[in-house]
Each structure stands twice: as structure tokens, then as C-alpha cells.
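Figure S4 source data
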Amino acid sequence: MEPFQVALLAPLRLSTAVSRSLHDARAENERLSLLAARLAVENARIESGSRSAAAEPPDNVALIRAPVIGRDLTTFEHWLVISRGALHGIRPGAPVITPDGVCGKVVACGTHQSLVQTILASESRIAVLNVRSRVPALARPDRSGQLVLDYAPKDSDFRPGDTMVTAGLGTIFPKGLRVGEVTNVPDRPEALFKPVMIRPFADVSRVERVFVISLPEDPESDTGTVWLENTVPPEITIPGQPAGQ
């Protein structure tokens, strides 16, 4: 090939090489994100204490990767629209996570899209558990983009740096999924309960892709799904208690 032709083709070859490198980098990032999400789910199964060393993971629990294609235009963090729906195996009530932690839950499904209520939506409530002290409480969002605990006993043990996970006390989230880290435990002697502030692990205001935990239609139909037992709707209701997640 003539030197003149080589010089003309050099920018095209460089552009092709850069494009291929970017494609490979995106593919690797996708693979690592899926692996991290799978590890998060597996860690939750182990944390819940419901899986023996010899047990095999159930075949009917899958992670569905879903790009975020819409948000509420007021806060950008209370509601997400994802480009996966009933056609992909998603149904209302399915937990939504990121590799970092819990993002929210599916509240409505179309054929190709779903609406996700995040853990920072004002209506959101999620039962959580302190990994270190094993104290349960109810987390709700505040106006600062953090979570605050309700009903934490006054004498309970919470410290900055403690990890909070889902408690598995409702019918939405299985036990052991990472939720956030305790950032502050203000000293308020007049408060009826201990005030505890939590920073969510998942940055719902910036997330571009989430993973939906596709739950089986009947978790009790497979003895390998002990981890999902609490996702079956309860047969009784505790009087005077708000519906948990």
C-alpha cells in the first residue's frame, strides 16, 4: 500500500480501534455489574441464615437487567421508569436493586415498561435490621436524601458505620439485602424512640441501570426457596400495624 493511502486510512483505523475498545469496555462493565448484583443477592441469602452450605441456589430466582429510561422530573429520585415489563417476567411487588444496595420496588407493570418506587419516595417504608446488633426498625425517607428510622427502641444499639439490611418482615424484600449505613445517632433525650440517620448505599438519583429480582409465582412450590418465604402474602394481619415491605 502506498504511503499516501496509509496516511489517509490511519484516522479511520484509529477510530475503528477506539470504537472497538469502547464496546469491549461497555461489555465488561455490563458483565461486572451483573456479577456484583448476583453477589449481592447471594450475600443476602447467606446473611439471612436460611441457606446451608450444601444447598443449591433455586432455579426460579433470576435477575433481570433493566435500563432506567425515565424519572420523576421534580426530584429525579422518587420514581423510575425501566424498559422491562411483564413480557420480560417482571410483576408488581418485585424488589429492585443495584450492585450497591436496595433501590426500591416495582409498583406497576406494562408490557415493555415498569414503574419503580424508590426507597426515597415519600410513601416508601422498609423494614430493616442492624447487622451488628440485630435490632430491627422501620426506615423511611427524609427531605435530605437519607433514611431515618422509626420505632427504634430508646435503649437499642446503633452506631455510625453500622450496616443496615432488609429485615424480611414484610412481603416485598427478602431478608439480608443491603440498604444503607448509619451516619448519625443524635442525642435527643426527649425523643420517644432513638433517632438514627442512614445513608442509602444505592444512589437512586444517578443510577442508570437496575436489576429486578424476578420472584417465582409460588415461592413455596420449591423447597430451595426458603430465602423467599417472607415474600408470600401473609395469611394474618397484625392489628394496628402499618403494612411493611
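Figure S5 source data
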Amino acid sequence: MSGPQSGVPEIMWQGDFITVRKWGTWEYVGRARGIHAAVILALIEGDVLLVEQYRVPLGGPCLELPAGLVGDETDGEAVESAAARELEEETGYRADRIEIIGRFASSPGMVSETFSLVRAHGLTKVGEGGGAPGENITVHRVPLAQVGAFIAAKRAQGMFMDVKLLTLLGAGLLD
């Protein structure tokens, strides 16, 4: 590691999925065991698939792109495999192909977790989605032209928005 700190990060606490580290005076949290996330941009016939679910750290529901952990169940799992599995589990859609767009960090001042943004191609509805038992995911299929209004309406209801939704709002925020 390079940067203003010297030495190596010290593990302050580690659970099954989270590790808290301290490096000099800097404290941060990250995923344990090299786990990272796959975030899925799933477009079908001019619509985008979004998911809504209760998030314990926020204490309320959050609107997000479909996503899931890579390597949480299988060491060495490929990003494409995890993304395809999570997309189908959460939304009920199966992709013919997953394309990796790139790797990103969502809150690099506090969290070392990164995610791979992927694009799902050739979607076919094969189930209802909803996630794993207990996740209670609601799937929204939203026309791209209406995404801004849909997000605004959900925000007005008090729903949290995942920062990755900015990929859909893009230049519209600059208007």
C-alpha cells in the first residue's frame, strides 16, 4: 500500500463478512475474505430493472440496481457468474451474457469495498424474483425515459437511494 500512512493496516475486528481496520489514524471497514460486489445494469426493451428492499444499516427501504456478492459462497467465483446468479435470484430475469464495465468504489473515504459494474444482455423472464428467503425484494421495471421521475417519487416517499442509481440519471443532473 502506498499513501501517507506507514506500516500495514491492523485488523480491529472481523466478522463473517465485514472487517474493521485501522491504518495509522485512519479507520475503515471492508468486506472480509476478498469478497466484493457485482452491480447489474439490466436493460430490456427500453426499460431498466430496479430493486427495492429493506436495508438494516439504513433502517428503511432502499431503491437500487440489482446486485450481489461475488465469492461469498464460492471461493474464486467469477464476477459474471455471480452477477447472473444474483440477477435471476433478485429479479427473475436470466441474462444470455454479462459484460463487465469496470470496477468502482462507492465510498472510498470510509469503505474499502469495491464493486464491479456489469451490463446484462439478452434478458428473459424466467421467474418472479424477490431474492433469497427473507430478502423480500420488490422488482420495478421502469422505462428509461421515466427513471428520473420514478426516483423522485420514491425519494418523496422517504425511500433511500443507492448512489449507483446516479448511473441512470447521468447528465440529467446537470440540466
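The chain is about 15% helix and 45% strand. The chain has a mean pLDDT of 90.
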